[in-house]
Amino acid sequence: MQNSAWKKHRSCGTSYLLPMTPKNPQQWLQVVGHAGSFRVGDRGTLLKRFCEGERQCYLRLMEDGLRPFVPAYHGVVRQDEQDYNVMDNLLTNFSTPAVMDCKMGSRTYLEEELLMALERPQPRSDMYEKMVAVDPEAPTVQERAQQAVLKTRYMQWRETLSSTATLGFRIEGFRKANEECHTNFKRTKSKDQVMQALDNFVESSPHIVWGYLKRLKQLRQALEASDFFRTHEVVGSSLLFVHDWTGRTGVWMIDFGKTVALPSHVTLDHRTPWVEGNREDGYLWGLDNLIDILANMLPPT
Q: Tell me, what's the pLDDT at 120?
């Protein structure tokens, strides 16, 4: 059940594990991220392949006002000659949950990635093939002749396809309680398209929408007061949405492998449009838009 839309930052892995079947909730199937990136641990924990940057983020987050909105972190363990970060398994207290991954922010690449690509421009045939697979008309005449594109061009083009560029977030994929899986959101761009996808995920339940909306508003308030958030460039991070048939809902921030601390004199507001050099990531702009869309899904009162 792999899909390229679910592939993430190579060094740190990403995202979550979903329940394999309602009949046996202790079995798990990884449908996102890289194979081998996750293991289910003991006592309601999840093991994620070790990433030092992510460890540093979790250590800071455990002392920050955002702690209730991220998985509790339990340090590092070693299994089969591989280190893992240990955190709470957020699905433990749900019964046959539906799960959605939303990638937050107006870009999914770090400024340092863009700078490295600019310093060492090298046409990439693999990225050309990915581009053509999505949109055969996207390459320029020169790119078509070379059968290759520069990484900088590919990274920036990719963000324009989805609601990342237009709304500051995109749906990576979701899996419903009946095991129905949706991952084809590469070109889901408009508010109406996003709203339709979200309505499918919540199965038109105002109660579930209301639960998510309340949690997201609490998250926004915590983010605006967070020292961690103000002093970090948060790129490639997701919100994990979880609900089940009982009406229980939850939203948590996950995936901090590409979240980096800013120089001491720099802070971000996370709403200012990104221009090269300002480090803004659009996270709060995307959250504002997500909250507005969910609010518009509720029936008039």
A: 83
- For the chain, the straight-line distance linking the first and the last C-alpha, in angstroms and rounded, comes to 41
Residue 19 has pLDDT above 70, yes or no: no
Q: Which residues have a Cβ under 8 Å from the Cβ of 195 and sit 6 or more positions away? A: 293, 296, 297
Provide CB contacts within 8 A for 170, sequence distance 6+.
102, 103, 162, 163, 164, 185, 188
Distance CA 111, CA 107 (A): 10
Amino acid at 243: H
Amino acid at 145: A
Q: How far apart are CA 172 and CA 191, in angstroms?
A: 15
Its pTM stands at: 0.87
Q: What percentage of the chain has pLDDT greater than the value 90?
A: 72
Greatest extent of the chain over all pairs of C-alpha atoms, in Å: 58
Q: Is the pLDDT of residue 274 over 90?
A: yes
The reported pLDDT for the residue numbered 15 is 53
* Residue written as token pair 């740190």: 12
Q: Is 166 exposed, middle or buried (0-12, 13-18, 19+ CB in 10 A)?
A: middle
Residue 79 pairs in a beta bridge with: 82
**Alpha-carbon gap, residue 15 to 203, rounded angstroms:** 23
**Tokens of residue 86, six digits:** 């240990």
